[in-house]
Amino acid sequence: MSRSLLSLQSLSAIAMRCASTAGSSPMVRTPVPLFGIDGRYVSAIWSAASKQKKLDAVDNELKQLLTLTQKDVRFKDLLFNPLIKVCVH
């Protein structure tokens, strides 16, 4: 399983464990320190969801995304394959 998929699973698990402990401070940190590019994205999603009190909703959406990537290999490749070029018109 790729690191990105593991990060999605990690965020989902963290959100479920810590939804009731999310604070209202200006800078919301994840309950577990995260590092690297994946960690930055997960931290940003966690902080935004926590500030808006939508951790459960984000958790459900990430679980749906994870399920889609497991069911559809082409969709997974579209998201995670660095060789696929982005076309913006």
From TrEMBL:
Pfam family, one: OSCP
Descriptive protein name: Oligomycin sensitivity conferral protein
InterPro entries: ATP_synth_OSCP/delta_N_sf, ATPase_OSCP/dsu
SUPFAM superfamilies per record: N-terminal domain of the delta subunit of the F1F0-ATP synthase
Tagged with keyword Cell cycle: no
Organism: Medioppia subpectinata
Keywords: ATP synthesis, Hydrogen ion transport, Ion transport, Membrane, Transport
Family: Belongs to the ATPase delta chain family.
